[in-house]
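#dry-run=false #mode=assembly
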Amino acid sequence: MKKATIQLETLTCPSCMQKIDNAVKSLDGVDKESVNVSFNASKVKLEFDEEKLSIGQIENAITALGYEVIKSQVT
Amino acid sequence: MQRYILRNKNRITLTSGLLIALGFVSLWTMGNSELFEWALIIASIFGVTPIAIQAYQALKVKVVSIDVLVTIAVVGAFLIKNFEESAIVTFLFLFGAFLEQRTLNKTRSAIKELTEMAPESALKLREDGEFEEVEVDEVAVGDVLLVKTGAKVPVDGTVISGEGSINEASITGESIPVAKEKGSKVYAGTILDNGTLQIVADRVGEDTTFGKIIELVEEAQDSKSEAERFIDRFSKYYTPAVLVLSFIVWVISRDPELAITILVLGCPGALVIGVPVSNVAGIGNGARHGVLLKGSEIISDFSRLDTIVFDKTGTLTVGKPAVAETVYYGEDIDEVLGYLASVERESDHPLAKAVLEEIGETKFSTVEETEVIKGGGIVARVNGHRIAIGNISLMEREKVELDEKARADVARFERNGNSLVLTAVDGQLKVLMGVRDRIRPGVKADLQRLKKLGVKNLIMLSGDNQGTVDLVSRELGLTEARGNMLPEDKAAYIQQLIEEKGQIVAFVGDGVNDSPSLALANIGIAMGSGTDVAIEISDVVLMNSDFGRLPHAFGLTKAIVRNMKQNIFIAVGVVLVLLSGLLFSDWMNMSIGMLVHEGSILLVILNGMRLLRYKIR
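#status=ok
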């Protein structure tokens, strides 16, 4: 399991959080419990299994919704 | 393509706005209703595209978002050929989103400024002795780093060579240069104003004080209270419910205009955004003023505070004994002070340190025949004089005569809670010093402010004897003061206040031996220099151990809670006005609904922004 922190462009509507939350959780290999989308910080924190998917795939799922990924950090 | 459209949302907004303006101008000036209609049709199609894309994306991940409601409403208006409505609604929705982004950024700016102070690079010593610029992530504990004038200290470390002065505002909130030399501790994120330092890294990255502060504040701004979690759950079902409701209305009334108006009116806007906005602006204000608030639950408890319990030493008092009162007898005092300092220099007694600090620069002489008298003081020979330094019993032993004035001074000093240091030269009393732990400057005024702000009880608990405690309590005007308390007694006392008296209790302490109390109180307030475990176990941290920030913190939490209530009031009020407008009048339509809706969102954001400027009077 890897921990990822993804910095997004400024989130403005709280329903964005719901969208991102659902989108990320639907990915296979993401630990659903660990997903945390923060509105004010405009960040997504999650844990994922790097054998099942890459950080790039997670980023794609978010950008597909129309939110820009500014930076992501995996530890 | 989708991404391209979303990225150019602002341009689309502008275009659709211009088209609408063009339409209306042509209608009013030339009476050209055909051009008017076409302009609005194009504006509608233009405007609805990004919204529809977002709606589609939302539906794909099974979320009924506002975008979905608006898209259906606009398409509906389009189908019943009400192009004016469809164009204006899309434009207002897009333009509102644009303004919201701008203003929201503003409310978050205080916290953003903080995170942007994080150091990015460091000059690291290579094996060949040269310094090389590296990313701050590449610095490990034990690395030697060079910090030049004007640069940020990249990590927490210890100075190994060089001198300089550092602005520690990012850690302490206090923009005063602090001198650093070999052995001094330096903190990540602080700025070297002048000089050059070589430091060795003690803590790096998120382990540094600055890293912890950032993480704390970032988590705090998104922490949610019970009420917010409720609103979140509520809004999850609210949007789909509006959709269903509007469908039912349409089926029953057969009035598509009414149905789509409900869709627009039903958008939950200000309600969902109002509370987080107050939160982020308030926590941001705190961060700027050296007050770390760890989340919104704490803010609401803090604002309703009944009782503050203080630790004495290090919280209400400076925590270091110092000379508080001095009386000189006779001539040649400078010479005597020199002797006094020379003798005390060789002692490591806390009183001796206080005396030395008081005297400061002086002429030192050689000290001979030093004799330590247990429970009395020191006797020694300096420049041929017999010097006796100690308490009353030493003076008696040395047969020093105390005249009436001296005896009165001694009695007064003792009454004031001092430990006495008397100095006699050749059997003559020369200096009387009263040493005690002083009350922090300004504490009295701060306590009065807290009372004025509505704290009912100010209680001090201390390990000191009751006599000293009573003295401090009387001077500060506390409600209650208890001495001879062990850490576990303090914790038990706090528990009793909370459980038996049902009070909301804050405990203010320095966090080391007070951790049980900090954890047990409803609000644990740590006087942190920013380096302790206190940061982790407490709910509120006063940076730089500055007691004066406590009234600001308390006033701020009250202001935040007030602000949240105002925002909820605005949000609910707007929904009620819109609904009654819809039910009882005929002026309500989609465009007005959208205008009011977006306006209310902006209003709560602007209201939240006021918190950034909050200052205690």
